[in-house]
Write a structure and sequence with these properties.
The protein has about 200 residues and is of the alpha/beta class. Helix content is about 40%, strand content about 15%. α2 packs across α7.
Length: about 200
């Protein structure tokens, strides 16, 4: 009898010691960001990191998940109007987040070719997923001025620096195309106004 009580005690304690499957956490805001052509990492260097930092500060303690889209960011993708694989990845991530985190505010964003990817991704979303996108923020957008589908179009902020030929439809990178980190605070303020 004593052995049975001891065994039951050990088993009950081990049940509490067994790690539970982690639950997906839902942030207050999730940003899906696509970097520009030839930039390194998933956030790049010119826009992603300063935008992430500015938004974290602007959210004043609300939780932020800032996700860089994994895609090649090769010149061929830019010339083709944006990398289709990157667009599919972004659309799938947005759809999954919209489904699993009903209270999370979703932002899609991109710089240069990443802005093309953002346009393409928006077109791949179902109407219900489109309605979950609170803001689209674009920097140096080669598709500057092209409408977004559905309700997203009413929540777009696009930055086009004076002298940036990329966002005027030309395939020439001049110094103004590399200055969008300076717009990070304004972009963050826009996002906060949309959520």
């Amino acid at each position: 009898m004593l052995a049975t009580v001891f065994l039951l005690s050990v088993l009950s304690l081990s049940a509490f010691a067994t790690p539970l499957e982690p639950r997906q956490s839902c942030s207050a805001v999730t940003v899906y960001f696509a970097r520009g052509t030839t930039e390194i990492g998933t956030l790049g260097t010119f826009v992603g990191p300063p935008f992430q930092s500015a938004l974290k500060s602007a959210l004043a303690g609300r939780t932020l998940e800032f996700v860089g889209i994994k895609y090649p960011a090769a010149i061929g993708g830019y010339l083709a109007g944006g990398d289709q694989g990157g667009a599919t990845t972004m659309a799938n991530l947005v759809t999954a987040k919209a489904s699993s985190c009903p209270n999370t505010k979703i932002v899609i964003s991109g710089y240069s070719q990443g802005a093309q990817v953002t346009h393409l991704a928006a077109g791949k979303l179902s109407s219900s997923a489109q309605s979950r996108v609170n803001a689209a923020v674009l920097f140096g957008d080669p598709d500057n001025g092209q409408a977004f589908p559905g309700p997203i179009n009413g929540h777009v902020k696009s930055f086009c620096a004076p002298g940036d030929l990329i966002c005027h439809g030309q395939s020439v990178v001049l110094p103004p195309h590399l200055t969008y980190g300076a717009n990070a605070a304004e972009a963050a303020s826009f996002v906060v106004s949309q959520i």
